[in-house]
Structure formats: structure tokens, C-alpha cells
């Protein structure tokens, strides 16, 4: 029930990111706008006080978002919040929480969808929140808005064809028979009738009629008694009778103008808009035309019409190509424009008092106009960040120090040349790509080699230790935009090479050892989209954008064959299948460096699911070698296409790894002190030994200095940056003073933009926001008001770090500063003061924060998230989650705990069902004994994640089991700590006790290992609330089960 706690943080840079809007929707409460873009991102915009401002940017899809729709999802316990659904060109459909951008569910559709619509439908006499989906397939899918599984399929018997547009016929009541109208691309109208008591999973059309309305883009049915149908085609729009499809009104578009959508304003008025953003209102049949809005767009804007019945207005939402959203409000009666609001990313950046910092802005000649970063690479071995800039230079800088200089009010930030860095100069145009081969193949490449590609057509090999240029390759006839490492199965000559891809459609293999080009594959007619390797056959396979495939021999450099059509597709499919079998676990460094650089969201998801390579594989053992090589901080460049986009960087803090590294550094220092003390005792009488020791220290220090001019960031540097960003500044001035004076924390320059990782590796990032004069203490309170999920993550992280620092002797960030390097002050005089300060910091965030946030929109931590960490494998995270959960249960009081019990009571599994075999893990009444999802357990699961994704029904079963396990922990904690509130519910206390005992006594198996967190949580809660559970359990069986576990553990 635990996984690595990773906290993202973003530095947006001086220029806003691109967001080319391709889909838009308005939430039913008219408080939020959701947009999807052609790069697969989603953005949530707040509509408040006559203003629109971007709130969240979500990395959700690997291809263009084709449609978004808002739904109301009441599945979550005791929560009724707005959610929305998005779908991409590749059929990826996701359910999102609008408050924090968390991905709640995900599914994959076959075919290419073009539109989704949220709708309430009666299915099997039950009102359900549904999503209608249609596109380049002959069916209309009705999906569940909560699980995204298919509830109903609308098929065609007569001339099945792709559905161009569809809508639900408005009815007087949702309990009536519902009609769904669809218009195919060949111009045929189909009507499906959905009765409320329908139990079938497939329905066929009730009526089909050929109307020859080709190139249709939208269809709408009026809500009045006289049912008329509006059909909009690119060349004309027409109004027909819904019953017999007789034509009532027809209007052709003007020359050079194409219609793009429309809708009914009332029974007498329709609104039609064109691809150039021109909205026209027609009175039927067409006695008058009212033009009220026009704007020039570089690409067709996305326009939607919504009726706001609360104030009797029409809302036209327009999404532009340049990350812009406009809201035009029209009065229904007078049809006059009453309000027009416009917002964009550029407008937000221009209105900020302090523009978001770039990652190395302070190293530019003019900080007001910094040199933009065009390529970036994080070297985890040294915690270095390599940034290629538009002037051709490459800057290497310690990652934590440069983040601290840009985010915090660091006293060193104003020093010239701070942070310490190296600058490599050799390119004559902007740097387009960077590669550190040693990070991707440790045994094959030297650790000092860095490779860079540039728009000056060159590839340069650098020595990052000495800061020198080793060799320059000039093989391409255009910009070099990608660098790759060949697979390990290639021959020795190829293994010592790297692969470069040019914009002139050429691919080169460059040998780093011999410093020469061994293969130049050029003359490809179209851009290169895929490079595949078949080292056994000595083949390099290049796929182009025209679906052609070139097969090159790597050893000889000859073109072996050229294929097109189905043969080319078969070659690529065979390569993909082989890669899937050979590389089931993707390489972290490849995923990190390439994930967002080329919009490879699948690589990013794989990275996030792995939790950035958890440092401890065992449950109770800590592998020192893994912990030493694990990344406590990771920086990734959000490089986007086109190349003039922003220099945004995302910083990942791995809390669990950071805690382990802090403890390891402390133990290492302790051992060194002990060794030096022992050495001093044995050599105090020998002056010669002391002199020799001094000479050795000077020689080693000089050799280290010559090998690398940059200091490596320590865990203390990273922890100081992390805690300084998370701390609730301004809540308590006395604690703030202790944090700065005793602990060495540094206040942020402005509000920090955090992120949130969620289901299947999706990520949402906070956008920068304008600070008004009424906002108090923005540095400390904003991220506590976003969502309960974000609050839970941040509180757990800062409390666990504070508890770790409290355990270390006099662990303060205030230290003797020597060339900017922070070291621990190990004096014992103020040990108690420092420990007390860390304790006060933890108490502020664990207990006092709700009191200080009174009057603000504070989002308390989520009990279910804390319950899943009740027995986390990391002791510090476990203690933080337990303290937070108990504090929150006390904070909500008896009434709040009663609501929690009522909300989770129906999720407790019935282990005392006489029909359920106690040892049957597959039975529905014992779900906790089955495997938990990898995202929740943090352990090795017997269920493959790919298999779970392929079988969506299995994912649903996992979700049910996860809720059951969460309910056991939550009710077990309430029963153990507040037993008097659970005892009146005799059956509930009994079921909870039986569930805990079942988890303890169930024999170890593949699906329920002996030391899985849910079993450890059951043992802990049985001990905490023994007096409460004793009447409902057999004490002797529990004792024997504990003894058996002890005996198996000792073995």
C-alpha cells in the first residue's frame, strides 16, 4: 500500500509554453474552462469575477486531444466534485479531477475517436453518468463516466459507416425513452432508441434514412415541443423536421467561408460559426442576420455554445491557436453582447509582477533578457544539469544550487558567476540535443564524454571533466535534432558509437573511440519518424513519414532494401514485438531524457510508474548500493516543438530516496570521524605519520579538484531546497524565525508552482498566478488550497523530512560556508535547540496548520491516501502518515469520524460469510487477499501492469480491492484509537476485526506475501486496538499466527 513519494516542481521560464487548442468545454457550474491541445496537453482555466486565468497544465495524452467534456462523478466517498473526460487521436480516454488534474481512470479505445459528449442516461432502470463517443468507427459507444468501461454499443444493420456527428434528443424526463441521432460521413441519418429498462449491451438503429448531407460537422435537436433538427455542413446549414427529415430552411455559406459548428439558441434562433471565428445569429427561417463577433485566427478556432439558465445568458467559448480563450456572453432576449473576456498564456506572463524564473537565467549576460535554453540533460551520477543555449554554448551547473538560486532568496544568488558552473563553447548556432552516453550504457562509454548536436549541422564530443572539445563531426546537411545510443547486442564497433539524426532526413553512426563516421544513411525522401535496430541481422531500420522503410547494413553501410505498404508495416511490427519482449522494463535514463522532448508520454508514464526506481527492493532491508545511486532530485527539460518554445524545467524530488541519502551521508560522516579518531590515537606519537597523512590529504584534494571543477550536490543541499519550498511560510512568524535562524531554511522569492503525479504516470502542473493585494502571504498558503491530494503529499513529505533531520545530531542547514558548500555543524552546544526547532516545524504542519489557515480555502489531507501509507516501507514516511491521519481524525471531531465510518462501512469485505472459503483469494468477499495494484502496493505484484491495462475489467476489480483494503485500515484505525465510537456498531466492529484477523492468518502466497503492507497494517492495528477487537476474535489463533510469522522471518 505504498509507493515512492515524488513531488514535482516546475520552473516555467520567461516565456510561456505553447498550447495550440484543439478542443474546449465549459463546466456545468460555469466556473471552469477545459482546453485540449494538439500536443496532448490539457489546461484548466478558472472563470472568476469576470476574468479567465489558467490554473493547471496537464500532461495527459501522447497525441492531439480531439474532444473534452465535463461530467459529474459521484463515485468517490463523500465527495461530489466536477470531473472531465478527454480523448485523443490514438484512442486514449481519461477521466480527470478538475481541482488538481489527477487522472482517476484511463482506457484505450480501438479506432480514432472524434468527439465525446457527457450525458445522463437511464440504463437498466438506473440513472448513470455516461459519455457518448463516436468517430472513425461504425458504432457509437456509451461509456461509464466513472470507470470509462463500455456500457452499451450502438451498432448499425444498414450500411454501417463512420459517424460524423451525433446528439441526444432532448426529452421531458430522463426516465422517458431516449433517442440518439447520428449522421454518417456518407450522409445517412440513423436513430437509436434507448428504453430505460434496456439490459442489452448492443442496440441497433430503429430508423435509417439517406439525406445526402455530406461533409457534416454538427447536428442539434431543438428543446421545444416542435422538434426540428439543425444539420451543419461545411458548405451550408439546414433545418429539417425531426420526424420525416423534410427540409424547412437552407442557407449556403459565402464563397471562401466554411461553417464549423452551431446550435439552437431557441426554437426561433440559431447560432452558426465559421472556421475563421465569425459567429452569426439567424432568425428562422432566415428573416434577419445578426453579426456580433469576428476575429482573425491563424488556424480555425474551437467554438462552443452553452446556455446559462441561472442568469439567462448565452456563453460562446472560443479557443485559439495561441493558448488563448475568450468568453462572449450574450443576452438571450435582446441578443446583444453583454460581456467579453479574453485571456491567454502570453497575457498571464505579461501581467505577472515577477516573471517565472528559468533554470539558468542568472548566468546570462543580461538577466532581464536571458539567453534561452534550447536543450537540456540531467546527469544523475553527479547531479549536474547540462543546458544548451541558443547562442551555441553549453552550461554545466549543479542542479540543486541553480534551482535554489532561482527559487529561493539565497544570499549567494546575487553573486557574479553563482552558482559555480562550466561553459563549453564550440557550436556556432543553437544547441538542439544533448546526450550523456555513460548514463544510458555505463560499461560502454567513458564517464567524461558528453555529446551535443546543433543547428550548425555539427555533432561535438566533449570532456565534461576538463571542459574541453575532443572532436567535431560534420556529417549532416542540416540541423541535428536527435542523438541515440545503439542497443547492447550490436557488435563492438557499433557499441562504441552513437546515432545522430538530422533534419535533412539523414542518420549517422559516429564512433566515439575512433572519432569517425562509420555509417551515413541519407537520401531519405521524407522526414524520419522511427529508428529500429536488429543487431542480430546487423540491420538499421529507418521509417519515414510516407510509411516507407529503409533497411541499412550497419557494418558495410549499404542499403539492403526499401519497402512500402504492408511489407513496411510488417517489418516495423516485427521490430516493435521484439523490443517488447527484450525490453519489458524500460531504461530510466532513456525515458527521462526523451519523455517530453518528443512528446513521448508513454516513456514518462513508465518512469512515473516505477517511482523513479525505488531505492529499496526488499520490505525490511535497505540496499546501500541502490540508495547511493538513487536520484533524490531529477530535472527534466520540457522542450517542445517548435524549437522557439519556452525553457521550462520540471524538478522531481524523491522523498523516500532523499531520506535514505540523508541517513547514509550521516552514517558515512560518522564512520569517517571514528576512523580519523582511531588513526589519531595510534599516530599521535609519530610526527612523520601526521606529516604523511597531511600530504596525502592535500594530494587527494588536488586530484579531485583537477578532475572536476564543480562540487556535487549533497543530500543536504537538496533537502534545504525541498523543505524551503514546502514550508508554510507566514503561518507563524516565530516558527519562521526559527526556520531561518536555526534551521537555515530560505524563503521562496514567489509562489512555487508544484505538480502532482497520478494514475498511470500522468502529471499536472500549477500555472503561475497573479498576486492581488488581498492575498496574504502567498509564499506559504497557496498550495494548501489547491486540493486534498496535493496537501496530503506535501504534508507527508515535509513531516517525514523534518523527522529525519530531527534524528540526526544537530542537523541544521545553517553551516560554515566554504565556497558555497553546505556542511553539517556537528557541535553539541545547540543540539537541543535545533531538535526542538525541527519538532516545532513538524507540529506546525501536522497539527496547527488548519488553525492558521482558518478563513482560507484550506484543503485537508485525504484519509484514504494516508491509510495507504499506514505501513509504508519507509519508516519516516510511515510515521508521518500515521501522525497526520490521527491528527486529522481528531481535527474533524466525533461527527466527522461518524461520517467517515458511514462512508467506508459498506466497503468492508465480509470475511465471515459462510459461503466464502477463508482460503479462497479470488472470492469477491475477500478482495484484500488478492493482489493490489502496483501503484498502491509499491511491492512486486503477480499481475503484470500491461495485462491489467489490456483487461479493463481486471483493473476495475483491482480498484474494488483497493477500496476494500483502504476501508479496513481506516475503520481499523478509528476502532483502535477511538474504540468507543465503533463499539455501538456491533456488526461493523465484528467485520473489521474479522478482516484484520483474516489478513494476519491467511497463509503467505504469491498474491498475499508474508510481509505485504496490508498484512503489516493488520498486525499493527490488532495490537493498537486489542481491547476493542478481543471480543470478536480467537486470541490463541492470533498469537499462533504472530509466532508463525516471527519464525518464518527469522528463517
From TrEMBL:
Residues 951-961 have a biased composition (Basic residues). It comes from the Eukaryota. Gene3D superfamilies: YVTN repeat-like/Quinoprotein amine dehydrogenase. Pfam families: WD40. GO terms for cellular component: cytoplasm. Keywords: Repeat, WD repeat. Residues 669-689, 910-961 are annotated as: Disordered. InterPro entries: WD40/YVTN_repeat-like_dom_sf (IPR015943), WD40_repeat_CS (IPR019775), WD40_repeat_dom_sf (IPR036322), WD40_rpt (IPR001680), WDR72-like (IPR049916). The keyword Repeat applies. WD repeats lie at residues 21-55, 424-472, 521-562. Residues 924-935 have a biased composition (Low complexity). This is WD repeat-containing protein 7. It comes from Ciona savignyi (Pacific transparent sea squirt).
Amino acid at each position: 500500500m505504498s509507493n515512492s513519494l515524488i513531488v514535482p516542481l516546475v520552473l516555467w521560464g520567461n516565456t510561456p509554453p505553447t498550447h495550440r487548442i484543439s478542443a474546449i468545454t465549459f463546466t456545468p457550474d460555469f466556473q471552469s474552462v477545459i482546453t485540449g491541445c494538439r500536443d496532448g496537453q490539457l489546461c484548466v482555466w478558472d472563470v472568476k469575477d469576470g476574468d479567465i486565468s489558467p490554473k493547471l497544465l496537464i500532461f495527459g495524452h501522447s497525441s492531439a486531444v480531439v474532444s473534452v467534456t465535463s461530467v459529474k462523478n459521484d463515485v468517490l466517498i463523500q465527495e461530489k466534485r466536477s470531473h472531465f473526460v478527454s480523448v485523443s487521436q490514438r484512442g486514449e480516454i481519461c477521466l480527470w479531477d478538475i481541482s488538481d488534474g489527477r487522472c482517476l481512470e484511463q482506457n484505450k479505445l480501438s479506432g480514432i475517436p472524434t468527439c465525446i459528449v457527457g450525458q445522463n442516461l437511464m440504463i437498466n432502470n438506473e440513472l448513470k453518468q455516461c459519455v457518448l463517443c463516436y468517430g472513425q468507427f461504425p458504432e457509437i459507444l456509451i461509456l461509464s463516466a466513472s470507470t470509462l468501461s463500455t456500457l452499451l454499443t450502438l451498432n448499425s444493420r444498414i450500411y454501417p459507416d463512420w459517424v460524423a456527428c451525433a446528439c441526444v434528443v432532448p426529452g421531458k424526463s430522463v426516465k422517458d425513452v431516449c433517442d440518439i441521432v447520428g449522421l454518417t460521413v456518407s450522409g445517412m441519418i440513423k436513430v437509436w432508441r434507448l428504453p430505460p429498462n434496456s439490459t442489452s449491451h448492443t442496440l441497433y438503429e430503429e430508423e435509417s434514412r439517406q439525406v445526402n448531407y455530406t461533409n457534416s460537422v454538427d447536428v442539434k435537436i431543438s428543446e421545444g415541443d416542435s422538434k426540428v433538427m439543425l444539420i451543419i455542413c461545411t458548405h451550408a446549414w439546414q433545418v429539417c423536421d425531426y420526424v420525416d427529415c423534410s427540409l424547412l430552411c437552407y442557407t449556403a455559406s459565402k464563397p471562401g467561408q466554411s461553417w464549423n459548428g452551431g446550435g439552437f439558441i431557441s426554437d426561433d434562433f440559431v447560432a452558426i460559426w465559421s472556421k475563421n471565428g465569425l459567429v452569426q445569429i439567424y432568425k428562422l427561417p432566415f428573416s434577419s442576420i445578426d453579426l456580433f463577433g469576428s476575429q482573425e485566427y491563424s488556424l480555425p478556432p474551437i467554438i462552443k455554445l452553452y446556455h446559462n439558465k441561472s442568469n439567462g445568458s448565452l456563453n460562446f467559448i472560443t479557443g485559439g491557436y495561441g493558448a488563448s480563450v475568450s468568453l462572449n456572453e450574450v443576452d438571450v432576449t435582446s441578443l446583444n453582447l453583454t460581456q467579453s473576456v479574453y485571456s491567454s498564456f502570453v497575457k498571464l506572463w505579461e501581467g505577472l509582477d515577477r516573471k517565472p524564473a528559468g533554470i539558468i537565467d542568472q548566468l546570462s549576460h543580461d538577466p532581464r533578457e536571458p539567453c534561452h535554453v534550447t536543450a537540456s540533460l540531467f546527469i544523475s551520477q553527479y547531479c549536474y544539469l547540462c543546458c544548451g543555449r541558443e547562442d551555441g554554448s553549453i552550461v554545466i551547473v549543479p542542479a540543486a544550487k541553480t534551482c535554489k538560486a532561482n527559487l529561493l532568496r539565497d544570499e549567494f544568488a546575487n553573486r557574479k558567476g553563482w552558482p559555480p558552473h562550466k561553459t563549453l563553447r564550440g557550436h556556432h548556432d543553437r544547441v538542439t540535443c544533448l546526450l550523456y552516453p555513460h548514463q544510458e550504457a555505463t560499461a560502454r562509454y567513458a564517464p567524461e564524454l558528453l555529446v551535443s548536436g546543433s543547428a550548425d549541422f555539427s555533432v561535438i564530443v566533449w570532456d565534461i571533466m576538463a571542459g574541453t572539445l575532443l572532436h567535431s563531426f560534420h556529417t549532416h546537411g542540416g540541423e541535428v535534432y536527435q542523438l541515440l545510443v545503439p542497443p547492447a547486442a550490436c557488435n563492438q564497433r557499433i557499441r562504441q558509437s552513437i546515432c545522430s539524426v538530422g533534419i535533412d532526413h539523414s542518420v549517422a553512426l559516429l564512433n566515439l573511440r575512433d572519432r569517425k563516421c562509420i555509417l551515413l544513411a541519407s537520401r531519405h525522401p521524407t522526414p524520419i519518424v522511427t529508428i529500429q535496430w536488429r543487431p542480430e541481422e546487423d540491420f538499421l531500420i529507418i521509417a519515414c513519414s510516407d510509411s516507407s522503410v529503409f533497411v541499412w547494413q550497419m557494418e558495410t553501410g549499404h542499403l539492403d532494401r526499401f519497402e512500402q505498404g504492408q511489407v513496411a508495416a510488417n517489418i516495423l511490427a516485427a521490430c516493435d514485438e521484439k523490443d517488447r519482449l527484450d525490453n519489458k522494463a524500460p531504461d530510466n535514463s532513456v525515458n527521462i531524457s526523451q519523455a517530453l522532448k518528443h512528446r513521448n508520454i508513454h516513456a514518462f508514464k513508465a518512469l512515473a510508474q516505477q517511482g523513479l526506481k525505488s531505492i529499496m527492493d526488499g520490505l525490511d532491508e535497505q540496499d546501500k548500493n541502490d540508495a547511493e545511486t538513487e536520484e533524490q532530485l531529477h530535472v527534466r527539460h520540457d522542450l517542445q516543438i517548435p524549437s522557439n518554445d519556452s525553457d521550462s524545467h520540471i524538478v522531481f524530488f524523491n522523498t523516500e530516496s532523499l531520506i535514505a541519502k540523508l541517513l547514509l551521508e550521516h552514517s558515512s560522516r560518522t564512520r569517517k570521524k571514528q576512523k580519523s579518531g582511531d588513526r589519531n590515537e595510534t599516530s599521535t606519537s609519530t610526527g612523520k605519520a601526521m606529516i604523511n597523512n597531511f600530504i596525502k590529504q592535500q594530494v587527494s584534494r588536488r586530484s579531485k579538484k583537477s578532475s572536476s571543477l564543480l562540487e556535487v550536490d549533497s543530500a543536504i543541499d537538496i533537502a534545504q531546497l525541498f523543505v524551503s519550498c514546502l514550508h508554510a511560510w507566514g503561518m507563524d512568524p516565530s516558527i519562521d524565525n526559527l526556520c531561518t535562524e536555526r534551521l537555515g531554511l530560505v524563503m521562496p522569492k514567489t509562489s512555487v508552482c508544484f505538480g502532482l503525479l497520478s494514475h498511470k504516470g500522468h502529471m499536472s502542473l500549477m500555472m503561475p498566478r497573479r498576486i492581488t493585494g488581498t492575498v496574504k502571504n502567498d509564499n506559504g498558503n497557496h498550495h494548501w488550497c489547491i486540493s486534498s491530494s496535493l496537501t496530503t503529499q506535501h504534508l507527508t513529505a515535509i513531516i517525514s523530512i523534518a523527522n529525519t533531520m530531527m534524528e540526526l545530531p544537530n542537523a541544521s542547514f545553517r553551516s560554515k560556508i566554504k565556497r558555497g558548500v553546505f556542511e553539517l555543524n556537528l557541535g553539541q552546544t545547540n543540539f537541543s535547540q535545533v531538535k526542538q526547532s525541527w519538532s516545532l516545524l513538524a507540529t506546525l504542519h501536522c497539527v496547527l496548520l488548519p488553525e492558521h489557515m482558518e478563513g482560507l480555502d484550506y484543503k485537508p489531507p485525504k484519509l484514504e491516501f494516508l491509510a495507504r501509507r499506514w505501513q509504508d516501507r519507509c519508516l519516516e514516511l510511515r510515521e508521518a502518515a500515521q501522525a497526520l491521519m490521527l491528527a486529522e481524525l481528531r481535527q474533524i471531531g466525533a461527527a466527522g469520524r461518524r461520517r467517515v465510518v458511514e462512508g467506508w462501512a459498506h466497503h468492508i469485505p465480509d470475511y465471515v460469510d459462510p459461503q466464502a472459503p477463508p482460503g479462497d483469494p479470488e472470492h469477491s468477499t475477500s478482495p484484500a487477499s488478492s493482489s493490489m495494484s502496483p501503484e498502491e502496493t509499491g511491492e512486486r505484484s503477480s499481475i503484470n501492469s500491461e495485462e491489467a491495462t489490456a483487461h479493463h475489467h481486471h483493473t476495475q476489480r483491482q480498484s474494488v480491492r483497493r477500496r476494500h483494503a483502504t476501508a479496513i485500515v481506516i475503520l481499523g484505525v478509528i476502532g483502535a484509537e477511538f474504540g468507543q465510537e465503533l463499539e455501538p456498531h456491533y456488526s461493523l466492529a465484528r467485520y473489521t476485526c474479522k478482516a484484520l484477523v483474516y489478513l494476519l492468518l491467511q497463509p503467505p502466497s504469491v498474491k498475499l506475501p508474508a510481509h505485504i503492507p496490508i498484512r503489516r497494517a493488520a498486525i499493527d492495528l490488532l495490537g493498537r486496538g486489542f481491547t476493542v477487537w478481543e471480543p470478536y476474535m480467537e486470541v490463541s489463533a492470533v498469537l499462533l499466527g504472530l509466532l508463525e510469522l516471527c519464525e518464518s522471518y527469522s528463517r
